[in-house]
Amino acid sequence: MTPLYEGKSKRLWATENPDTLRMEFKNDATAFNGEKKESFDKKGRLNNAISTLIYVMLEKEGIPTHFVREIDETNVEVKKVDILMVEVIVRNVAAGSFCKRTGMAEGHVFSQPIVEFSYKSDELGDPLINDDYIREMHLATPEDLVHLRTSALKVNDLLSAFFAKCGLKLVDFKLEFGRLASDPSVIVLADEISPDGCRLWDLKTGEKMDKDRFRRNLGNVMEAYEEVLGRVKETLG
Asked: Which among 21, 36, 146, 219 is most buried, taking Cβ atoms within 10 Å?
């Protein structure tokens, strides 16, 4: 079959149900807006497993998502959504681009979470935007933004507590949201939650357990993802 969409780490395929799609996790890894690329044998399987477990957990906690069911090791069935072109980043600790922009030392713990919005555009490098940009670019309504911010902070509370039980600090993460094709008035959490889009540090050692291992050439990338999956499974019982 020809995929409906192919991104840097996933493909989307049509299904017999017009309201659902098959989402395939690829083994490709990219960084620095696609300038650095590599393929890892286990990556698709690991990210699918981690994201599936987390989405099931979030659904139980009352967070509406696009997740329907796991199909196999690298594929899940998801509700068809129209992705909002606004990505939401939640930061609990200074790291990554925040440090580059501000000069703040990595590891500074914020007094409260910082919420950022970026324009979902590979061509432009996903630039940071604010409420005024979003209004003038007609990317979302003010009511949508309130929902995105509220939902992201609720997810942050849930994930921070959960990952702490896994012995991991949730440093920051990226979320995507979309309108249901079956009911555009409903906005749900979409895409994935995995070490690709979350910074996770070991609570005891501070060791990076996420895609920064790939970005910074630290090695043992899939070993770290395997460890994250093992801890998530153990915590969920």
From this structure: 21
Cα dist from 132 to 69, 129, 170, 176, 214, whole Å: 37, 8, 29, 19, 34
In this model, does residue 1 exceed pLDDT 90? no
**Using an 8 Å Cβ cutoff, are 175 and 191 in contact?**
yes
Q: What is the CATH number of domain 82-221?
A: 3.30.470.20
H helices within 30-130, ranges in order?
43-60, 97-102
Q: Specify the pLDDT at position 72.
A: 98
What beta strand segments (E) does the chain contain? 5-6, 10-14, 20-25, 28-31, 36-39, 67-70, 75-79, 81-83, 86-93, 109-119, 128-129, 168-180, 187-190, 198-202
Q: What is the mean pLDDT of residues 101-110?
A: 98
pLDDT in tens, 43-83: 999 999 999 999 999 999 999 999 999 999 999 999 999 99
At position 196, the amino acid (one-letter code) is D
At the fourth CATH level, which superfamily is domain 5-80? Phosphorylase Kinase; domain 1 (3.30.200.20)
